UniProtKB/TrEMBL annotation:
PANTHER family recorded: CRYPTOCHROME, CRYPTOCHROME CIRCADIAN CLOCK 5 ISOFORM X1
Record flagged with keyword Membrane: no
Stored InterPro entries: Crypto/Photolyase_FAD-like_sf (IPR036134), Crypto/Photolyase_N_sf (IPR036155), Cryptochr/Photolyase_FAD-bd (IPR005101), Cryptochrome/DNA_photolyase_1 (IPR002081), DNA_photolyase_1_CS_C (IPR018394), DNA_photolyase_N (IPR006050), Rossmann-like_a/b/a_fold (IPR014729)
GO BP: any one term: response to light stimulus
EC number(s) from the headed UniProt entry: 4.1.99.3
Biological source species: Zymobacter palmae
Protein name per Swiss-Prot or TrEMBL: Deoxyribodipyrimidine photo-lyase
Keywords for the protein's UniProt record, in alphabetical order: Chromophore, FAD, Flavoprotein, Lyase
Domain of life: Bacteria
Sites annotated Electron transfer via tryptophanyl radical: W308, W361, W384
Obligatory cofactor(s): FAD; (6R)-5,10-methylene-5,6,7,8-tetrahydrofolate
């Protein structure tokens, strides 16, 4: 019996739960669905489209070696997927549809629709847990609730993890070619800039190269260097992880193998990195625990009432990297130029927008999504809500990063600023963090759009005015 494997954010053949399982059952036909309008409504932009498209092309090549045809369907809206996917399966004589679960609300509704319609047409759907080690709902507190604080989640994750969950499936063996169906892709989407494609090669091989490079060269110093944006101290694997060009098990097992198989103790660089991978999983669980976060609602419900200022000129200055705070501006320019931003700077720029500019975090969330190659609802929404103090385990609202001291601490020599704010490159390093008025006017660098102290107080007052959590 033919099996249909639907690839989504899991663009690989190695250690792919749905593919491995389906192939054991019979010959496989693969499908991938392009939903441009739906994705645009999720704020996805050209960098992500392009990375996805290149990832699909790489996947098609790998599948080709296995004689598995990959067909791309163009279905703009998720709502239309169930009926079209079912007719595709029927036309191609596939009795079972396999896929790996995704956890955003729209994705879950879409998949539920597929399950319901398949039942009506006597097709079987097999869903697999692949993106995370624990299926959301399988790791709960003693009270049977989802964790809303990270550290106990992390501890429970470590404590309950079994070898089975970490087991990796090999890519399947090649099958006998299926007559009458061949790979068909559509590749007419807007491409990213040439330098972005060079910096971010897509596909499984590229992801494995990155992982190997990180583990041999960087992880040793990860714990000390991960907070310094001028240093290439992190893995830069987020785009590949977000689209599943590498599996979470591959990442965890490779890291653990350099640490005598341990995940939670031992080498500090490795355990710190693994801890970040568990944050990724935490936010996937939150998507299911609190569906409201997929609907533009804050996790902390009382923060719905926050009086945002939403000053458009301020938002525009933030987007364009012209706030007058050099590290914030450097970060925003890195994002728009490369499609990626360092984690320390995501926290800083998100705090700056939501606190200093008292601008609705959802504006920033959407702007990030529109530019990031690694844009991913769980992590992006989780990160934004953390920074805006509206989320799980958030920064307390009265803790507002000082963008100048952050700069002095994390970009001590002003190297990152010099790279991304060239106007200030010739200013002595010490003054680069917050140049005086004369220097600004000489260099053509803008005056600060808000005063840190006043803006901080204004934000704290706005939060104080909220009704208490009930
Ligand atoms: P590394 O430091 O090498 O970490 C390894 C992996 O762990 C990452 O690739 C990522 O998959 C995961 N990870 C690390 N930190 C986090 C975190 N805080 N939350 C969830 N997962 C994490 N990450 C995304 O993948 N997509 C997003 O859209 C995204 N948006 C963010 C928005 C804000 C406001 C903030 C504060 C953080 C966001 N992050 C997002 C998390 C984090 O900044 C990036 O994952 C990280 O910077 C990617 O770089 P890296 O691959 O070199 O990370």
């Amino acid at each position: 019996d033919r099996q249909l494997v639907w690839f989504r954010s899991d663009l690989r053949i190695e250690d792919h739960r749905a593919l491995a399982h389906a192939r054991r059952r019979g010959p496989v036909i693969a499908v991938v669905i392009r939903s441009q309008k739906q994705w645009a409504s999720h704020d996805r932009g050209p960098n992500w489209f392009d990375f996805w498209q290149r990832g699909v092309a790489a996947l098609a090549q790998s599948l080709n070696v296995l004689n598995i045809p990959l067909i791309m369907l163009d279905i703009d809206h998720f709502a239309d997927i169930p009926s079209k996917l079912i007719s595709f399966a029927q036309r191609n004589e596939c009795g079972t549809i396999h896929f790996n679960d995704e956890y955003g609300l729209d994705e879950r509704r879409r998949d539920q629709g597929v399950v319901q319609q398949a039942r009506r047409h006597n097709l079987t759907v097999e869903r697999h847990t692949d993106h995370v080690l624990f299926r959301p709902g399988d790791l709960l507190t003693g009270k049977g609730e989802y964790y809303s604080v990270y550290t106990p989640f992390y501890k429970a994750w470590l404590r309950n993890l079994t070898a089975d969950q970490l087991h990796q499936d090999d890519a399947p063996q090649a099958q006998t070619p299926i007559a009458g169906i061949s790979t068909t892709l559509l590749d007419d989407m807007p491409a990213a800039a040439e330098h972005i494609m060079r910096q971010w090669p897509a596909g499984e091989a590229a992801a494995q190269d990155r992982l190997a490079h990180f583990l041999t060269r960087r992880v040793q110093h990860y714990a000390e260097q991960r907070d310094f944006p001028a240093v290439d101290g992190t893995s830069q694997l987020s785009p590949h992880l977000a689209l599943g060009m590498i599996s979470i098990r591959q990442a965890l097992n490779a890291a653990a193998s350099m640490n005598e198989g341990r995940l939670g103790d031992g080498h500090q660089g490795i355990t710190t990195w693994i801890n970040e991978l568990v944050w990724r999983e935490f936010y996937q669980h939150i998507l299911v625990a609190a569906p409201r976060v997929s609907m533009h609602q804050p996790f902390k419900e009382n923060t719905r009432h926050l009086k945002w200022l939403n000053e458009r000129t301020h938002f525009k200055a933030w987007c364009e990297g012209r706030t007058g705070y050099p590290l914030v501006d450097a970060a925003m320019r890195q994002l728009t130029a490369t499609g990626w931003m360092h984690n320390r700077l995501r926290m800083l720029t998100a705090t700056f927008l939501s606190k200093h500019l008292l601008t609705d975090w959802r504006w920033g969330e959407a702007f990030f999504m529109n530019h990031l190659l690694d844009g991913e609802l769980g992590a992006n929404n989780g990160g934004w809500q953390w920074a805006a103090s509206t989320g799980t385990d958030s920064a307390p609202y009265f803790r507002v990063f000082n963008p100048v001291t952050q700069s002095e601490r994390f970009d001590k020599n002003g190297d990152f600023i010099a790279q991304w704010v060239p106007e200030l490159a010739s200013v002595p390093a010490k003054q680069r963090h917050f140049p005086d008025a004369a220097t600004r006017s000489r260099c053509g660098y803008p005056a600060p759009i808000v005063d840190h102290k006043a803006a901080r107080l204004r934000a704290i007052e706005a939060f104080k005015a909220l009704p208490s959590d009930d």
